[in-house]
UniProtKB/TrEMBL annotation:
This is Peptide/nickel transport system ATP-binding protein. GO terms for biological process: peptide transport; transmembrane transport. Belongs to the ABC transporter superfamily. It comes from Stella humosa. The keyword Nucleotide-binding applies. It comes from the Bacteria. It is found in: Cell inner membrane. One of its GO terms (molecular function) is ATP binding. CDD domains: ABC_NikE_OppD_transporters (cd03257).
Length: 329
């Protein structure tokens, strides 16, 4: 559960709904978590689980017909859910940064990279052009872009997709924000560059004290990067805890299925473990536990919505039939 005491960012019972002609789509439905200074939280789940909408809600980028229907987003004690657009603009890119899955959501196609990076610095800090240019050059080097002086004079279309993503990551790191929300930013990168980005992200958190929320479906990335993990399903957090505890001994059947479907955990020659069925539409969720129609442990008790329960110190799950035997072993 979210513990806002001393947290840089605490999300409490966040609900983000989209009002459509077909009904109310509850993309985020009662999500709570917190992340402290210098800590990394992995937000994990399959497509459509509400991970990205949670990130957009925190930074105030949910467009109509979506809106935050309830809950609090506490950034150093300030509730961003109630903040004005002017206040959010002041925080975005400065104290809170977001790295998008598509780098062109960050980059302007008609401006040179140096212009964009210098503007990102001077918009929030009193800094001369020479100092800003030096900071921009260092940031490009941090994310593994060769010949940064040359690359600063280039336009986005002169970069490959992976290089554009690295520039977008560099821009997010520029102002050394208090919170970075990273929405699957390394998906398009090769494993060598991905490892370098993950190393730089960890280094930034440890040295500067930045709190990082890393949104991904890749459990292997979270295993090597995060301190804590939240597993999302159908708009809700179904399990959370320290990353090693959750991945070694998952409580929730959904987490258990996710980990079982990772190829590296399979015995040679055995078929992959599969979670039967498909994730339900947020417009027509089953009553009670959203996962019960796909869960091998489901029974009549699962027809009542399960609360988030602490089964072990620091280990929470939204389930009435958790895998406690795995934790005990």
């Amino acid at each position: 559960m979210a513990n806002s005491s001393g947290a840089t960012l605490a999300v409490e019972d966040l609900r983000t709904h989209f009002h459509t002609r077909a009904g109310v789509l509850k993309a985020v439905d009662g999500v709570s978590f917190s992340v402290g200074k210098g800590r990394i939280l992995g937000l994990v789940g399959e497509s459509g689980s509400g991970k990205s909408v949670t990130g957009f809600s925190i930074i105030g980028l949910v467009d109509p017909p979506g809106r935050i229907a309830g809950g609090r987003i506490l950034f150093n004690g300030e509730d961003l859910a109630q903040a004005s657009e002017a206040r959010l603009r002041n925080l975005r890119g400065n104290r809170i940064a977001m790295i998008f899955q598509d780098p062109m959501m960050t980059l302007n196609p008609v401006l040179r990279i140096d212009t964009q990076m210098i503007e990102a610095l001077q918009a929030h800090q009193k800094m001369d052009r020479t100092t800003a240019l030096a900071r921009a050059r260092d940031a490009l080097g941090q994310v593994g872009i060769p010949s940064p002086d040359e690359r600063l004079k280039s336009y986005p279309h002169q970069f490959s997709g992976g290089m554009r993503q690295r520039v977008a990551i560099a821009i997010a790191l520029l102002n050394r924000p208090d919170v970075i929300i990273a929405d699957e930013p390394t998906t398009a990168l090769d494993v060598t560059i991905q490892a370098q980005i993950l190393f730089e992200a960890q280094k930034l958190c440890r040295e500067v004290g930045t709190a990082l929320i890393w949104i991904t479906h890749d459990l292997s990335v979270v295993a090597g990067l995060a301190d804590e993990i939240c597993v999302m399903y159908a708009g809700r957090v179904v399990e959370q805890g320290l990353v090693g505890d959750v991945l070694d001994a998952p409580l929730h059947p959904y987490t258990h299925g996710l980990i079982g479907s990772v190829p590296s955990r399979n015995r040679r020659g055995q078929p992959l473990t599969q979670i039967p069925g498909m994730a339900p539409s947020p417009l027509s969720l089953p009553s009670g536990c959203s996962f019960r129609t796909r869960c091998p442990r489901a029974d009549a008790a699962c027809e009542v919505p399960p609360p988030m329960t602490e089964f072990r110190p620091g280990r929470h799950a939204r389930c009435v039939h958790p895998h406690l035997e795995a934790v005990a072993a």
